[in-house]
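Box 3.1. Reading complex inputs
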Amino acid sequence: MSKFNEKTVKSDVIFEGKVITLQVDEVELPNGKLAKREIVRHPGAVAVIAITPENRMIMVRQFRKPLEKTILEIPAGKLEKGEEPLVCAERELIEETGYRAEEMKFVSSFYTSPGFANEIIHIYEASGLESGDAQPDQDEFVDLVEVTLEQAFEYIQSGDIIDAKTIFAIYYWENTLLKR
Amino acid sequence: MSKFNEKTVKSDVIFEGKVITLQVDEVELPNGKLAKREIVRHPGAVAVIAITPENRMIMVRQFRKPLEKTILEIPAGKLEKGEEPLVCAERELIEETGYRAEEMKFVSSFYTSPGFANEIIHIYEASGLESGDAQPDQDEFVDLVEVTLEQAFEYIQSGDIIDAKTIFAIYYWENTLLKR
């Protein structure tokens, strides 16, 4: 599937931040014309679907500056340099929620915004949960929230749950986990 | 849900492109410390779930420069300035695939990457489809592909389908549309 390839003619890094890098590439289109592509480079991330023995999904409430809004999400975080996604999933679950998982199973990976970013999220399913103390990063302010499936759908309705990975997780819970 | 708010102390626009704007905000954290937030502003987008009378999902194959890869996605596109998402959904479906929809029903909206971007995607379900000629933008090279549910899951396995909105669409097809 390569007939539409866009050959890079020039690539300029505009900004290198702590989280993302922005570059603008000049590309040659299949018709020979030139075009610009604005590209955000991201280290990738993991997110964790974790259901307690009481059949509640573990979520975190946190303020998201790009949305100017506090929302509920499944535990997630960026990959550190060279970090395996599985290791990152175990780490983020403990840091954000205090829960340790006996088992961490890969579910799916997806790109969030293929039009302008290379961010990929690897989703894991945690089981054999044991609660403990959260260990958030110094600049991270998160509340642990445990929600039933019914509450999860109410939070989707109210807009408190409104991001791709968390909505995916809730449908996965309803359509896969609860049907096992 | 506002106790974690981050007050903006300073906001610098680093880059204004055709598609995205990058800004870096300095914020005051709940503990009084300062931190930087790298934020990508995006106009928002729509995506369309469209199933033909032959029970195939309408998809487009296109090269995505941020991934350096050609992938299969549901028809989608950015909102133009002031454009209603519903109007954008109708427009993008025609432009990318040639299909016109008799009815366009809102399904869901979600943020793709709340950690660093404000991109929101509005998902619509098209019905009463009538085929026609595609009218792609000048710089847009897309192939129309129609896939069965079985093929869709094979494409997820092979990595040809690998973005959040399209995976959402396939699960929605399986778990909602096919159960009506």
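In summary: Residues 45-179 of chain A form a domain with the Nucleoside Triphosphate Pyrophosphohydrolase fold (CATH 3.90.79.10).
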